[in-house]
């Protein structure tokens, strides 16, 4: 039986830049505006979940505020910057679309139904809109065609096609988006007609756009807007062009794969094509062979000749992919080393500030690609004041290059992907005095059932720490020529590059070049014991050990992150089931006497019930054999030791009943750009949960067998677990779960010398160990 959800109060203190209370300060939340007292204090009472509010005062910039249960009993200080003349705020969001699963979900009703797309889209973004709309200039990467065209009008042969309803652009207006950047690999998904309709849909909402057009030259035109008297110049490019797909198409003579899907047979079917301008005689060729003849000869052509040759080729092979504005057709603006820096320099002649956005890198990579870093640095060398990047769909880090900020990936802002790593993101808040950056901060968000919501507590901290760790990784994502696999590889930073650091300030996180102090962290572990690292910050991955010593000490991180069952999303629901498949009855989150905190997961089953009761995360948890590699004498080798894994949680059961965890391992393969990704179940295993009945919380730790993660020479890169409750002998049984973690363990003494977001330490030895190691606190 669920316990009534309690309420709590939050105390805020509104101060100015000098730390003194601000006269006339107010806090607005849920349609109510509360004035601060003479000391700047505001108390907000009777909250049932995290608060999303706006702090403001005359003559100051309004600041978004997120506060949750962890702020109960504390005073949260919110610092307002003065709104002096020429000072303004830019809010930058990451990848955004409003189609696909928003319209046709796997289950349930559409969030954005076609017969009411405008209202549906506004509802999708409403929880984050109040915070994002506080910017004077709001931008997003709009990664979709926007049209009401039928699917038959989509780009032929493209693996992933994104199209959002025209009416759904109401979400941009709700968010306060002023500029949609279109230089990406999806704005041409419905061809030139789709681009024309995209521009029309944005015009209807009063949203400006830059970076793509149905006309080639127009895609490269800069946009200059005036923000509080400051001329802000905007340019964007993408390096994701479609060429890699074309390079992967089969050529004449390649064997036809066994069990080739019928809808991919066209790749092996020859067609007649030739082009005199390329000295290519008419002949019957597969798409890959025709492409290579064009690719190898187009450099010798003039622009008009290249456009004509492409028109001839693509008329015969419409599945050839070209997503950017070139060869006589429209699309996204493509980065060119020979032209893009000059365009930035020219923009600086007509604007006070140059904002550059780059759509580049590898999807789902933790760090930028070598190409992206080179292009971002080139943009700043040419005059860009800030560079903001996207495309990986996961968060990456920041760096300062020649004193200018580069944000490598903001993650997803509004998107429908189903990978665990794609749920967490942030929007970037930058404050400017004219063209001078005053401060930058990240505001964490989470896609909960595809809806973006601000986060509080451990969820917000986890996002910030993850970004900070990536800032300090000192690595690029690039291909290892030995096995043609992309890896995170150490690099030597140049003298112009300074690592960024993250500082918690109020309810968001400052991005700074200030190196934090190192503080000692002490731990004592008895033989066989593991313990949580109770430290808000990054810690030494070696735990202060010298390489090769104390092999029995393991350092661990929680790969899942959503096993606390606390309400940490600032939405309209008081619920701690984020990213779990609960149903509110047989499997639900209950607030009450949890093992720690307030919330826990409860499964209920009756002896007479034949209905299966199980619960799982909504997405598989990613696994990585190695997180970092280094080059030694030209050979790319792992820089960290191999991992082992355990599922750890607190559990209790009210009556004798069998409970189990079923593990399933997967190999997800997205390496072939010409085919849909494959997902193969490698193995599965069911393990009993060993706990005594009686309703007492007990620790459970289940080691995941190595055989589950490697089968037939194939290594798993994803895992999913199901918690199952079977019928009791009599009556009713309730299984409660709390503090669940899927922990990745590695030998601490073999780790690379880095600071990371680790959550546990384990002593596998036979003697007690006293540890003292360095930590970098996120709180200053």
From TrEMBL:
Q: Which InterPro entries match?
A: Capsule_synth_CapA (IPR019079), CW_Biosynth-Accessory (IPR052169), Metallo-depent_PP-like (IPR029052)
Q: Write one Pfam family the protein is assigned to.
A: PGA_cap
Report which superkingdom the organism of origin falls in: Bacteria
In this chain the Capsule synthesis protein CapA domain maps to: 89-417
> Which SUPFAM superfamilies does this UniProt record tie to the protein?
Metallo-dependent phosphatases (SSF56300)
Q: Which family does it belong to?
A: Belongs to the CapA family.
Q: What is this protein called?
A: CapA family protein
